[in-house]
Amino acid sequence: MEIYRIPEDLRFVNQIGQTLSAEEKIKLEIALIKLSSTQTFDQLLFWGRIEGTVANYYIAIGLNFKNNFEFPHKTFFYTANLKEFQNLPPLNPEYKEQVETFRQLFSGQPEKILINITGEDGDQPPADQPNPDEPQPVVKNDDDSDVEIKPPPKNFLEVDRLAYVVNAIEFECALLPVGAVRLTPTHELRYNDSFEGLNLQEASKIINYQHFRAPQSPNKKELIAQDDALFHYDFFDQLDDHPVGQWSLQTDSSKYQVTIRNLQWPGFLGYHRAGTRIFGYAYFGDGIKNVDLAFQL
Amino acid sequence: MLKEKLQEVKDQNTNLYEHLNNVLTKILLDNPKNAFELFEDYSFQVKSNGFKFEKYNEFDNAERSKINMDQSIQQKTLKLINKINLGTDEEPQEATQTGYLPNLIEESYLYEWAGIGIDENYKIFKALTLLSVTKQASKLRFWGKIMGRQKDYYIAEGIATSQVEDGELPPEVEPRGTGINTKSYWACNDLLNDKDWIELPLITPQQINTSRLIKYMFTGNLESDVITNPYFFGKEKHLLKAQIVRITQSTVIIPKGQYILREGEPREIDPTPEYKLPGFHDLKTLNDWMHFNQNILNCGRLVHLIPSELPEGIEPEVYQKQIENADPFENRLKPISNDKNAWKIRIVGDTTDYNPLSKDTNNKVNNGVIIIKSLVWPGLVTVYSNKVLSQLYYGYGYKATNNHFYPKQPQQVQSEQPDLPEQSEPNFPAEIPQQQQD
């Protein structure tokens, strides 16, 4: 969601019954402006809000198009108190399966411990794990130039779970209308200035929308590597259909404002106003994946 | 000479010289900042649009989005927004009176504080007004929106006063106006179509119990079949009504003390006489709120069914007690703080106390908004601010579950028993019917 267009684009989010209150909008705008002054991005977008039991998380995403081959670099930021955005920690692939089993709500406290490794309150950590309080054994190489230090095991905090969820949603759901972006001769991604929007008929067909991520399917990977990829607009993956029916495309009563909702991540929606250059996506939900979807259809 | 060379490179309609002319003219006209990056794009666009540099006056750069709205949609929208006209255009007929309908526009403002955005709230409000007039429904309110796979449902709750004959109902179904079928619900896919509000049918206890075992995402079509295991006997409209009733019965809450139990009949409640809504500061914790509606019993009704034929040797009152002990009633008006992990309460907005206009400085005015969200039925929101209490559901219509949902396996189809070996009928010669003897 473009930052300067948040109040207008919230109209689309209203279709699934979500919005930002007046207080949230004002604080969010200030925090986003602060963030964009400290770090330089080609574009800063508001990604969405994840509701927790005590507080909510607000996520922003910074995109860097220039000097990145084929796909812009995405950086995520979060804030729980709307005062200052902080970087989302990098993903730790060790905990991937465990995170997918978490089904309880987020609490809104980033420092909350979800998986306890180091042990608390005087519990002795297991003997085979290095005690985090003692200085770590230093392994020296033969030539004494590199010193390898084993990092102490860290607890898995809620903010790490947040990083998983945000990256998962972004990977599985982020979408764009076909034609909204194009490649330059140096294969960098840019927004297409001559994009006029999909017309009324095209906007209600899901085939005219594509993922906003580096292409994964083999034929799209080939397409984007070719030299004439400049002249094609559909070089990203099409929206997957596994499970069938996970995407729901609906319009409002004027048939003009299209939202594409994902039923596996209820709360995610991509939107487009037919005939204009207004498009985007956002997530307003509780951050829990609906894994039972296959049984619900 | 260069010009002729370029003109030799031809295509069907144009040659390279002309094409370069066209492209450069367009670039000069548009004057983009990043013309270098867009150069290939311009070439491509000029080829597909057929821009000709001689006709440059006819093209303009003003970015105008062409707004086209379908004629019929335009008419329907205007009809909805204008004053209600029950007759035709030539003979306008005003609506005489409508039942109670809370002002959705004012309430939307409260819901915005809760982070709930009601899309097209004015259209919904007008559509509800129209519903109230045409179906003579009283105590109407916007119940909420249930999202579906292809279409969404807008749901209205009220009491239908027009007489509808339901015919003979099976004994376990609570008749219209009682039990779980007390309130009527209307569902609508398309707000612009005023004929679209369809009243949801009466439901049976069996349907309630089946809906407790399945997890289904609605399609948006009231008549579609619901294929699940255990099999839900009914169409999507029955399941929709069942979920709506379950949600309403378990999540409507009111400030503590607004109702009291009736003496002698602890399952009935009456409004507290001389009750004053507490101020903002007395409603800030979960303890200050209580359930309003009765829970649905395990049998799927609100009141136990006493069969007309009692087993022998047992007196009616004793039998009734036995049934009630097996499926006990829950206490009415329980505080919601007893429900573990089921509610989330937040205070938002401006919570300063202001002195009111009148001289009574004891009753301060507080514009803070108290939001109570249900964690069991995600999407259910209750808001309270300045003596206005309102409730809404915006969700997919199923409960939050912590465990993965595994539908029950259908029972194994037993294989047929092998046929017994056939033997021919013993026909003794003596049994052969005697031929007619001449």
Automatic annotation (TrEMBL), chain A:
Pfam families: Radial_spoke (PF04712)
Family matches, as InterPro entries: Radial_spoke (IPR006802), RSP9 (IPR055316)
GO biological-process terms attached to the record: axoneme assembly; cilium movement involved in cell motility; motile cilium assembly
Superkingdom of origin organism: Eukaryota
Compartments it resides in: Cell projection, Kinocilium; Cytoplasm, Cytoskeleton, Flagellum axoneme
Principal location listed in the UniProt entry: other
A Gene Ontology cellular-component term: radial spoke
Keywords associated with the record: Cell projection, Cilium, Cilium biogenesis/degradation, Cytoplasm, Cytoskeleton, Flagellum
Region described as Disordered: 117-152
Entry similarity comment: Belongs to the flagellar radial spoke RSP9 family.
Designated name of the protein: Radial spoke head protein 9 homolog
Organism: Paramecium pentaurelia
From TrEMBL, chain B:
Matching Pfam families: Radial_spoke
Region (Disordered) location: 408-438
Entry keyword set: Cell projection, Cilium, Cytoplasm, Cytoskeleton
GO aspect biological process, one term: axoneme assembly
Protein localization: Cytoplasm, Cytoskeleton, Cilium axoneme
Polar residues biased stretches: 408-417
Residue ranges the record marks as coiled coil: none
GO terms under cellular component: radial spoke
Primary residence: cytoplasm
InterPro entries in the cross-refs: Radial_spoke (IPR006802)
Protein name: Radial spoke head protein
Organism for this UniProt entry: Paramecium pentaurelia
